[in-house]
What we know:
Mean pLDDT: 88
Number of domains: 2
Shape: globular
Amino acid sequence: MMMGGDSGAVAGGLARHIPVLAGRAVDWLGVHAGGVYLDATFGAGGYTRAILATPGARVIGIDRDDRATAAGAALAEQSQRRLVLASGRFSDLQTILATHGIAAVDGVVFDLGVSSMQLDEAERGFSFRLEGPLDMRMGRDGPSAADVVARASERELAAIIATLGEERHARSIARAIVKSREAQPIMTTRALADLVAAIVRSRPGLIHPATRTFQALRIFVNEELNELADGLAAAERVLRPSGRLVVVAFHSLEDRIVKTFLTERGRAPASSRHRPQVASAPLTFRLLTRRPETPDEAEITTNPRARSAKLRAAERTDAPARPEANETLLPRLPSLADVVGSRA
């Protein structure tokens, strides 16, 4: 997630946005001359600019939003071939690196969630504060939020909103959506926001009543938690020994996935005298942040969106990457294909 403001004197000039916890994230990456780093969520290029400020460092920037990579073309040109940009999902980062002849990197950084640029573009449909189509897709492919709202059952909608939005009024919202769409399709951000606001009451100064519902739909439409689990496993495969993984998360479910992934791979299981010792797989990471780092008050004052950010960092060991799947990291929900595809 990006914040507004100028980044100062970094490679490529002033950036329109700065990532939350930028300084600490880049410090944890341990950037050095000759190192190759993967910015898995390029956005406005804030992390990339900071990495390129180290002479001789190279960056591969990935973003599933091709508008972001297109906007970064000038920075790539100014970088003297030290920056390569690619459009794609970070779950495919290993394949993307391979297409550029890169098998391993010295660091991977993830800045999760939606960017300020996307929120500020009404036509993208991410914000309940701006009138626009109910889209929410970070890329330009696949079902939109309007498709999910139109086709998901009441039970599916309630599960999505309750789990991914942590909204306690999820059942009432789902019921209202189903009833409303029978009369007229819900196609705009304003229509959905007004519907939710009629159910979820909030006092002045608190978050907008539709915040959690919009968050849940965005995460579901973009399959963000699945992408995160797969992206972390891919990062494990491409990091060199002593390479660094840095993740900044804004949602409790995101942070829980990151914490679980790193704990499983960076901490030996506790032994017990009541149970026989069980051989465990070699640890693939060394934890660098025992507890997540969070923004200080100055950063929160400058950018209130930073308030929920948590940073975790770890260093790759020389143990082979683990082959197991990451389904255990994910909450139990119907898939996007099940919800939309079965009713297409």
